[in-house]
Specification:
Elements lengths: L7 H13 L3 E2 L5 E3 L1 H6 L2 H4 L4 E2 L7 E3 L4 H10 L6 E10 L8 E10 L4 H18 L6 E6 H11 L3 H10 L20 H7 L4 H14 L10 H14 L6 H11 L2 E2 L1 H15 L4 H16 L7 E4 L12 E6 L6 E7 L3 H4 L8 E7 L6
Parallel strand pairs: 1-5, 7-9
Antiparallel strand pairs: 2-4, 3-4, 5-6, 6-12, 7-10, 8-9, 10-11, 11-12
Helix pairs in contact: 1-5, 5-13, 8-10, 9-10, 12-13
Length: about 375
């Protein structure tokens, strides 16, 4: 009979592995402000948080993961130029098919400026973790939000469409890039028209006043400022979807998959045929592939797809998932999030890469 990975001795083995690679055992409070998770982890996380009422205007929740709390802790300690942190402990998410409290491990590396090498080291440590936790040969999917962001910038997509594409990826190109009317905003054309071009501070005050009149402090977990920002985003979008050229470029981009070399060649061909400048993003992609080889990683094991993205708004580059055969949820997942600290209030961006390990998904 196998020993459950959630028992203390297995967690200790895992932490020992992380320490051998220079990651310091760390912890963050279980009680966290809810707003950063709602804003940065996408719509999916909203209904899965365990929200806690403290009788204040600020909503709090039980931590659903370690990345955002770790980033907030780094900022609170002055934004250390280098911090490699390891976590093993309970996290909390409402789940229909499993317990709401479960044990997760997390690796968070902040401040490494050798970006390609740091990505390779994180993936290599994820592979060692996989071996320690059972040695199953999981499928490894790799994507690059940086490539997608470069295509979005080259096509000059509206902000609302760009955000949805970065969150959802391109597997269903028609659905994530529809006009606002299809997202329940058809009845708010007047509001959208009034807010178009409005000063953000005035828009936030306007929405806050409306909610105050209605006797509400927040709607669906969003603060008045967040609701105002979303209305502004939709207003600037103007209700426009994709042009035929934009949709065709995105469709062709989403179809590129294969080995790392095949994907790089496919993107270069796409950029040339449509006259879009993707050189810098492709160079970064190929530099990371070279770092994988230098680290001794087997590129043949990786399934690279431009359509693959993780449903979190804070990833900026390399993303990956380890998936067990017949499963649709990752056992290990992570990637690069260089803009997270600034989005949480730091003065500047900070290079950062990490991953989460769902211990329970190695016990089946």
């Amino acid at each position: 009979m196998s020993v459950p990975l959630t028992v203390p001795n297995r967690q200790a083995e895992l932490m020992a592995l992380f320490q051998r690679h220079g990651f310091a055992p760390s912890d963050v409070p279980i009680l966290q402000p809810a707003e950063p998770f709602i804003e940065l982890s996408g719509e999916e996380i909203r209904r899965r948080l365990f929200l806690v009422s403290e009788g204040t205007d600020e909503e709090t929740c039980l931590r659903p993961e370690f990345t955002i709390p770790a980033a907030r802790a780094v900022i609170a300690h002055g934004g250390a130029p280098r911090a490699d942190l390891a976590f093993v402990g309970p996290v909390f998410r409402q789940r229909a098919d499993a317990a709401g409290e479960f044990v997760q491990a997390g690796l968070e590396s902040f401040g490494r400026t050798d970006v390609a090498a740091a990505d390779a080291d994180m993936l290599a440590l994820a592979l060692e973790t996989e071996a320690l936790l059972g040695g199953r040969l999981l499928a490894i999917r790799i994507g690059d939000v940086g490539l997608l962001s470069a295509v979005i910038a080259a096509l000059e997509l509206p902000a609302a469409l760009a955000r949805r594409l970065r969150q959802t990826g391109l597997n269903s190109i028609g659905r994530p890039v529809t006009a606002p009317e299809s997202n329940g905003l058809a009845g708010y054309r007047g509001v959208l028209s009034a807010l178009k071009g409005a000063d953000p501070a005035e828009a936030r005050a306007f929405v806050k006043d409306l909610l105050s009149i209605a006797g509400l402090k927040a709607v669906g977990g969003r603060t008045p400022a967040e609701i105002a920002d979303r209305f502004l985003e939709k207003a600037e979008d103007g209700g426009a979807g994709l042009s035929p050229r934009q949709e065709e470029v995105l469709r062709q981009f989403a179809a590129i998959a294969g080995s790392p070399a095949e994907v790089a060649a496919g993107i270069r061909a796409l950029a040339k045929s449509h006259g879009v400048d993707l050189h810098a993003a492709i160079d970064r992609f190929e530099a990371r592939n070279a770092a994988f080889v230098a680290r001794g990683l087997n590129l043949d094991r990786f399934e690279v797809s431009t359509a693959f993205a993780r449903n979190l708004d804070y990833y900026t580059g390399f993303v990956f998932e380890f998936i067990a055969p017949g499963r649709d949820r990752p056992a290990i997942a992570g990637g690069r999030y260089d803009g997270l600290l600034r989005r949480l209030g730091a003065a500047d961006d900070c290079p950062a890469v990490g991953c989460a390990i769902w211990l329970e998904r190695f016990e089946d």
